[in-house]
Amino acid sequence: MKKNIAILCSGGDVSGMNPALKRFVEYTLEKNMQPYFIYDGYEGLIDNNIKEANYCDVSGIINRGGTKIGSARSKRFMQAKYRKIAKQNLDTLHVTMLIVLGGDGSFRGLHKFYKEHKIKFCGIPSTIDNDIAGTEYCLGVDTALNMIKYSIDAIRDTASSFKRAFIIETMGNKCGYLALISHLTSGSELCLIPEIAYDLSAYEHKFKQEIKNGRRYFIVIAAEGIKQNSIEIAQWFEEKIGIESRVNVLGHLQRGGNPTVKDRLMAYKFITYAIDGLMQNKNESVICYTESGFHHKNLDTVVNTPYQLDYELIKFISS
Fold first, then answer.
1. Which residues are marked as active site?
2. 3-140+259-306 belongs to which CATH class?
């Protein structure tokens, strides 16, 4: 008898989910399993929006951002009565294994689901914030960084034509990873992230001196979780530095876009290790990636460990 396995996407979508869905279908069928798609995340799991998947469902999606099966944030899933309904829906279809592509909030919901109903699962870190404890990489991060790179490079084209400061705001919630990596790889003049306390007045003399020495523009990368909003930073440049300023909030364009080669490859690997782990009775894990490779880590450890940005990266801008 075939083993039935399902997959869902939860929380914010990322580029890399569609390549993951493609590998999921192809690899499970190769292993003589029956794959199911759960549409619209935990909401679809509650509403029984679950369908068998086959090769035709994933044809031509590897180059598309977002997720073909939809995603959602579910308040209902945080209630025990709806998790019970979700389990009944899986039981009706004889689905015994579940893969969840999502972030911290998605895993916390999954943690409660497992404790109550013991459904075998594997979580795959999928958030551009890259803020999951235990893994150095989350699916979708490389594509997001490339979208930011394209945006910064385009803004620099116009910045170099005017004497202006451009404040570019990135996503990341309370994690400054996207902003920090973008700063280090774009040559911007200032990076502001939640992990490092800052005082803009400390830059006043330096920036004014640079203008006297011929600097025509400034590029500032600001993470959305810092103490000041981007408009306040732009006002500081105009009032204290004396340079016209513009704000560019990159917003949700960071979550879309054609998945990069890295994210397609990481999706392939994440899914393969997830399915192999479930077949080897690793029944409650999250696939985490570090320099030493892929590892199955206990969900309890992942969701109860605060994420910390790599100290080496922080050191690059705090020294």
1. 129
2. alpha beta
